[in-house]
Amino acid sequence: MNKKYEKLFEPIKSVLLIGGGPAGMEAARIAGIRGHKVTLIDKNPVLGGLLRTAAVPDYKYRIGKYADWMERQLENAVVNIQRGVEVTADMVKKMKPDVIIVATGAKPFVPDISGIESNNVVYAIDVLNKEAKVGEVIVIIGGRWVSWETAYCLAKEGKQVDMVVRSALLPDESIFNKYTMLDELPKYDVTIYLKWWPAEIRNNGVIIKNKEGNEKFLEADTVIVGTGFISDHSIYKSLEGLAEEVYEIGDSVSPGRIYDAVHEGYLRGKEI
Ligand SMILES: Cc1cc2nc3c(=O)[nH]c(=O)nc-3n(C[C@H](O)[C@H](O)[C@H](O)COP(=O)(O)OP(=O)(O)OC[C@H]3O[C@@H](n4cnc5c(N)ncnc54)[C@H](O)[C@@H]3O)c2cc1C
Question: DSSP secondary structure string, 92-154?
Answer without folding.
Answer: HHHH--SEEEE----EE-----BTTTSTTEEEHHHHHTT-S---SEEEEE--SHHHHHHHHHH
